Amino acid sequence: MPSRSSWPVPYLIGGFSVLPIMEKLLFLPALMMFCRVKSETTNLTGKVLIFRQETDNSFVKIPVRENIYSATVCLRFFSELRIREQTLFSMSTVYNGDCNGLNLMLERGQYKACLNETDISFPGMPHEQSDWNSICGTYDSQRGLIQLWVNGKRSLAKRFIKGGLTGSVETPRVVLGQRSQSFHTDYFNWQKSFMGELTDLHMWDFVLSPCEIQKYMKGSDFPLGNVINWKAINGFTQGGDVIIDDSMQPCAKQDG
């Protein structure tokens, strides 16, 4: 047993014992392993996010600079999960609530949107169980219409309330991999988590034209998101078991 003189001597500040700085630094790597924050701009071109388990603590968070009124959200995903609902995209605009902003979900092959605590279903939309799917959701706050596009096919425009996605928080946040249920905490429900791969997320604060959405579906020259741009994401926060990997691109054709 080490002698008393070999024990670390605490510092006293204001009558309280404080561990030496070097001892505190020993705890930082463990904390950083759980939650990795990238405050600089992150370029995810050619990258996919892999959520490989059903968990309540694997997520990616992206802050949004201001409240959103009209919106378009586009992304691509690959998932083989069939037995429950999973959340493809979740944006919080108020402090609490299961559907407190804009959410895009998939449940047993059927797509749904949830805006401000109201569910809207889009039956009959195409879905590839063992391949990539491209999805875009649009919300027109002036006309009160919401519409979905999946793999080039559009849904009927559904009636919804007018007025936008405003809420009680100054800076909304987007969560990938989980359904955002409380703005101040990272409490999530694994039964609504996403399991699979996700890439090419873009968000705009206006409704894209049908031609621009078709360009996104085909991967051609579409306008990059002015709210979230996959090529330049600010304030990227990663927690839990999320892997960033290279996307599977077609091999180059060899001559001869």
TrEMBL record:
Family: Belongs to the pentraxin family.
Domain Pentraxin (PTX) positions: 45-250
Location within or outside the cell: Secreted
Gene Ontology molecular functions: metal ion binding
The name this protein goes by in its record: Pentraxin (PTX) domain-containing protein
Names of the cofactor(s): Ca(2+)
Keyword Translocase listed: no
Keyword Acetylation applies: no
One Gene Ontology CC term in the entry: extracellular region
Organism: Albula goreensis
InterPro entries in the record: ConA-like_dom_sf, Pentraxin_domain, PTX_dom
